[in-house]
Fold:
Amino acid sequence: MAFESEELTPLITRPKRLRQHLLNPVDLQNAYIPLLVCCFVTGLIDAAAYNAWGTFMGMQTGNTIFLALGTAGLPKGSKHFQWLRSIVAISTFMLGSLLASNITSRIGNTRRLSLVLSFLLQGLAVFVSAILITTSIVPQNEPNSDKIFIGIPFLAAQSGAQVAASRALGFGEIPTTVLTSVYNDLASDTKAFAKDNPKRNRRFAAATMLLLGGICGGWLSRLDEGFGIALWIGGAIKILLALSWLSYEDAKD
Structure:
């Protein structure tokens, strides 16, 4: 009986160790790396989505301008879907940010479970849109089809959740979806040419990664099934990022 008890002890303690591992905060020293990868995903998805649907999923400044132009019946020849797409994208982006920030704050912003869950849900949301497009439930290159309103919320919401994650991790210099403030901060940095300037390095890397993602999204969009391929790649990256948090070291006391 004693022998059996010794054999069972590791089986009993293993779930407890896993639970503790998930609830421990992660070390934030290299936590910016997944956010830089998110910049690439933003460029990838936004380039493909704008080419296919005429709407941004992550960059809501552009959608706000589209909404404003819509009040004047512009751009000329555009249908009501232009400004309506913008409203749907902006509102679901905000909803995704709201839900993600509330869920993660309840668990603990920097806890491993919080980060795994956030990025896992983001990846699944991208996969849902990828499935809708691959199965032709939502058309790839018909921006005036009312069916695209099924696909926009998933992509915009996951972008909002992504921004919420970057804020929760404390890397304000990597907003992951916009570059206006990044460009300003790079230009106005009085230590721009200093040898040791981590924030400058992260800002430059963020802009580069988003540009590279956009280039990839643009070239993929030249293919007939390019939008769907871009989404499958983006969703897979998000799932890999979710799993990567499991390997991060615990925060040091």
Q: What stands out?
A: Residues 77 and 214 are 27 Å apart (CA to CA). Residues 81-107 form the longest helix (27 residues).
